[in-house]
Specification:
- It is built from nine helices and seven strands.
- The relative contact order is 0.14.
- The strands form two sheets. Strands 1-2-4-7 form a four-stranded parallel sheet. A three-stranded mixed sheet has the order 3-5-6, with no helix packed on it.
- It is an alpha/beta fold and about 230 residues long.
- It is about 45% helix and about 10% strand.
Length: about 230
């Protein structure tokens, strides 16, 4: 686990991203290896949150040393099994959540300030992560100082998953890949007041802020440089 080598790998990834015109790398994944059958373990780092967070921070620093590109740390959080990912409910004590399952994300955010976070499919203690204000706003933004955008995992708002307008209330700025049902749900919530317009404007502002820091814009500075890492 060579931190300097991982940073160099991040720079190589960033060069490839620039070549292909890709601003957000949908990686690294840093969930904990809790279940050996989890289908994403090949891309997750470790059973240890310190190691996972340190490696994710290192590759983020490498990628974001290049202007206009950034990482998307995922899957936030407790994505530790593959079966029924959208319906699985991780029952976790606050201590275990803080000391094991969230700690890696905390390290990566505080050490490297990734451009993006991707929420997971599963529920934590009965609430889908993309609908969790405590997770996306109270913890990631208010406690850890996350400055980027939060996006959902793909099709998380399909039947049985997260509610689209609640994603915005929770602090998700972007529903991926989005469809007509998502748009209709959000527009209806804006119309009846379930989704305050101030929250929708805040999500849009955060998204625009990060877009203006990507390779699609002129004279962009390195994301790493902006935060002094």
């Amino acid at each position: 686990f060579d931190v300097d080598l991982v940073k160099e790998l991040g720079k190589l990834v960033a060069a490839e991203m620039t070549e292909f015109g890709v601003a957000w790398w949908l990686a690294p994944g840093l969930n904990i290896h809790r279940n050996p059958l989890c289908g994403r373990n090949f891309e997750y780092y470790s059973e240890d949150p310190l190691l996972s967070g340190t490696m994710a921070a290192a590759i983020t620093l490498g990628v974001q040393s290049v202007p206009g590109v950034g990482t998307t740390i995922k899957h936030f959080a407790c994505n530790n099994q593959e079966d029924n990912r959208m319906g699985s409910n991780s029952i976790v004590s606050e201590r275990a959540l803080r000391e094991i399952y969230l700690r890696g994300f905390e390290i990566a955010i505080k050490t490297a300030q990734p451009m993006c976070i991707m929420t997971s499919y599963n529920l934590i203690n009965g609430i889908h992560t993309a609908n969790s204000y405590d997770l996306c706003t109270t913890v990631a933004r208010n406690e850890w100082g996350f400055e980027g955008i939060i996006m959902t995992d793909w099709t998380t708002t399909t039947a049985g998953g997260s509610k689209p307008f609640v994603c915005a209330i929770a602090g998700n700025d972007l529903i991926m890949p989005a469809n007509r049902i998502d748009i209709d749900n959000i527009m209806a919530a804006l119309k009846d007041g379930s989704l305050p317009r101030s929250i929708a404007r805040t999500c849009a502002a955060r998204l625009i802020k990060v877009i203006f820091q990507t390779i699609g814009m002129e004279d962009v500075k390195g994301y790493k440089e902006q935060f002094g890492f």
